[in-house]
Structure formats: C-alpha cells, structure tokens
What does this fold into?
Amino acid sequence: MNMIVRSLNRTFGARMAKSGRFVLLETTGRKSGRKSATPVGYEHAGEGALYVGAGSATAHWAHNLLADPRCRASLNGETRDYHAEALDGDAREAALRAVKGRYGPGMADRIGAGPVFRLQPVRAAD
It folds into this structure.
C-alpha cells in the first residue's frame, strides 16, 4: 500500500502543488534517510511561512519533520527550503483553524489528527 501511495504522490503531487491547492512537502526519512515528497494541505502564515497539519497521528511526513525539521516545499511552481516548528497549545489551534478554513468543512476531519507545524522559510546567507 505504501508503494502505491508513494507512486501516486510522485505522479500527482507536483501537479497538485503547481495548482496552488496543496504544497508538495519533501522531508528526509527518519529511518531510511531518503527524500520523500507528499502533497499536504496548507495555509499561509505570513512572511513566507506556511501552516501544515497531519491528518493522522501516524503520518510519516510529520514524524520525519519531528526527527529532522529541515524540509523543502513546492508551491505554485516555486520550491523553497524551510525549517519546521511543531506547534502546540493555542498556536496549534490557531494554525488548525487557518488550514481548515482554507479547505472548508469537507476537509475539517482530515486535518489535525496528527502534528501541526509552522514552516518557516530559510533565508539565504548574504
């Protein structure tokens, strides 16, 4: 099953990110060390940052970010490096409201069952 999902993510993930509907999030496997990309729901968090929330407590991409917060995200044809910050408490709830608001009631039960993050863009050294 995981191989099917990975294949679909490779095939359709870039298209979904290019459309702006989802962000294509690339993380480093916490066990394998391999790069893996998956389309994820998001909301803009200001100053180039993004909010993302896992729909499952077992989402591999979320656990990968907890182990190594460095990631890349592609959106609207642009790819940037980010540093993920796991959110909790009021910050987590505010981020969840923002992401759920973007996708409406049909996605409300598919976002937030797992970790929630703020992806902060990594600025290039001058």
Observations:
- Strands lie at 23-28, 35-40, 42-46, 49-53, 70-75, 78-86, 116-121.
- The mean pLDDT is 85.
- Residues 2-121 form a domain with the Pnp Oxidase; Chain A fold (CATH 2.30.110.10).
- Residues 88 and 116 are 8 Å apart (CA to CA).
